[in-house]
């Protein structure tokens, strides 16, 4: 039977491999953000990671494989962010507070991972990432629909879908400005984005968000 030491060696090798992969993905994120996906190279990623190209090729055959792995990990985390940001709202929550909370969570994710925007919205991203992004976009729209539906009980589903698409489009447009700025200017753009979304939703939702979803009057 294998000794404890023999059992431990594969685990140590696996842990070292995971650390190396994380190191390479972090380096790739920096390179993709600074040069874009097309101009990036495996040599530049290896240099950023402080390893030889041969070491990189032990884990990834090309930069597309690196981008796909990085994108999949970030999309998994983003899906968790969706769950937190678009969780059911307390009926007592004012619309302004609900919008601000959702925007803050999404902005925080994208500011911590600026490469996510680079990979998801660049003109030259790998096809597999584009497909994943389309699925992620559809999920986000569906979550916004689910968030709004209880507060728009008399609104046709097609109109709610349209409203959700507009909200997501406005967020993405504002996000590009946020990520391109820093400091006080960045904070100002975040506030402007919240105001735009709030002003758009206020006439549609009215005071329902403050009162909660419509309910049947007591008899």
Overall mean pLDDT stands at 83
Could you tell me the radius of gyration in angstroms?
Answer: 22 Å
Strand content: under 5%
Number of domains: 2
The number of helical segments is 10
Element string (H = helix, E = strand): HHHHHHHHHH
- Please tally the β strands and state the result: 0
Architecture of the largest domain, CATH level 2? Orthogonal Bundle
Tell me, briefly, the overall form.
Answer: elongated
Quickly name the level 1 CATH class of the largest domain: Mainly Alpha
Q: Regions with pLDDT < 50 over 5+ consecutive residues?
A: 210-219
- Secondary structural class: mainly alpha
According to CATH, the fold-level topology of the largest domain is Tetracycline Repressor, domain 2
Distance between the termini: 75 Å
**Largest β-sheet summary:** none
Q: Kindly report the name of the CATH homologous superfamily of the largest domain.
A: Tetracycline Repressor, domain 2
Helix content: over 70%
């Amino acid at each position: 039977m294998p000794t404890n030491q023999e059992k431990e060696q594969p685990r140590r090798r696996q842990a070292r491999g995971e650390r190396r992969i994380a190191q390479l993905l972090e380096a790739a994120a920096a390179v993709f953000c600074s040069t874009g996906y097309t101009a990036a190279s495996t040599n530049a990623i290896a240099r950023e990671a402080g390893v030889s190209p041969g070491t990189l090729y032990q884990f990834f055959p090309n930069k597309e494989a690196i981008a796909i792995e990085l994108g999949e990990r970030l999309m998994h985390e983003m899906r968790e962010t969706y769950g937190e940001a678009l969780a059911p709202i307390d009926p007592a929550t004012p619309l302004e507070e609900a919008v601000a909370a959702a925007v803050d969570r999404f902005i925080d994710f994208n500011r911590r991972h600026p490469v996510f925007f680079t990979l998801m919205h660049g003109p030259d991203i790998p096809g597999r990432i584009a497909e994943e992004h389309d699925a992620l976009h559809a999920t986000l729209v569906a979550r916004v629909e689910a968030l709004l539906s209880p507060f728009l009980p008399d609104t046709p589903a097609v109109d709610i879908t349209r409203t959700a698409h507009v909200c997501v489009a406005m967020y993405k447009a504002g996000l590009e400005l946020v990520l391109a700025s820093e400091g006080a200017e960045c904070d100002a753009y975040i506030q402007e984005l919240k105001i735009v979304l709030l002003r758009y939703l206020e006439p549609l939702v009215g005071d329902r968000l403050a009162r909660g979803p419509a309910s049947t009057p007591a008899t």
